[in-house]
Task: structure prediction
Amino acid sequence: MPRVGSGWTDTGESFDTRGLKKRARKASRPVPTPPVLVRLVREHVKEFGTAEDGRLFRAAQGAHLLSKEYGEAWKADRLAALTESDAASPLADVPYSLRHAGVSPWLESGVSPAEVARRAGHSIAVLFRFYAKAIHRNPARANQQIQQALDAINEHDDE
Result:
C-alpha cells in the first residue's frame, strides 16, 4: 500500500489501496517460498503477531508504517545488525537491497533464470539487465556444469 498523501487518493486517506503493478485490479501473484523462509515468517508472526488486516509490519498500535518511520527503523536496525565497517559501506543501504540479496544467490546457486524471474516478479529481460553480474560471476562452475552435461550425453551415446 503505497503512501501517496491524502490529496492524491480518491478516499482522502494517505494510503492508496491498489493491486499489483501492470496487472488486473484483483490479480494475485503466487510466490513459491522456500520452507526455511516460511519457518522464519511463522516464528515472526508467533512472536509479534500481525495487524488486524494481516500486515506483518506496522507502527505502534497497529497503524500503517510511514515512509519516514520505515527508513528510520531500517537505519537503526542496519547499525545494530552490521559490523561498523559493513555499516559504513553500501551493503543493504536501502530495503530494496534485500531483493538483490535474495535474487543473486539464487542465480549463483544454479536456479534457472526463468524460475528466479518468476519468483522475483520480474520478466527474464529485467532479470538479465539487472543481475547479469550474478549470472556470469562463476565461470568455473559454468564449465563444470557444461562438462557434466557433455559427460551425460556421452554416457547415453555409449549405451
Q: What stands out?
A: Residues 19 and 25 are 5 Å apart (CA to CA). The radius of gyration is 21 Å. The longest helix spans residues 139-158.
